[in-house]
Amino acid sequence: MLGVLKYSQIEHLLYSQVIGRIGCHADNITYVVPITYAYDGTYIYGHTKEGMKINMMRKNPNVCLEVDVIDDISNWRSVIALGKFEELKTSEEREMGMQKLMDRVLPIMTSETTVHHAMTDSHGKYIEAMQGVVYRIKLTEKTGRYEKR
Fold it and tell me: What's the rounded Cα separation, in Å, for the pair 146 and 3?
């Protein structure tokens, strides 16, 4: 059976996952790339290095986010959300964005080799000179579909 997810199911899927795919478009090129994210009910927060995705989102901040859970080929849920990219530039904004991301992602990182100390100094505080781009995407439109057999 194919169906449409209810608002509460869309929100649950966005909150429960940490991997999604951003679709962006600029200069006649469409680019889709996986991201790690945190969702707060309004924004998707992310952190990345300078590169094609960031360059494209700076040129055209209108993006698409896809998040899914796939149990098998006949049992899945998928959310598509449209939104607007915003780069977080001040130290306060960057710290807030990274805190949301770390609060969501670090508890589920189980590898003994996971390196997260690069974001903190010896006192556990954020390093202002942290490399990379901290951003958020304000989700403005969300739809969801599912298949269940």
Answer: 5
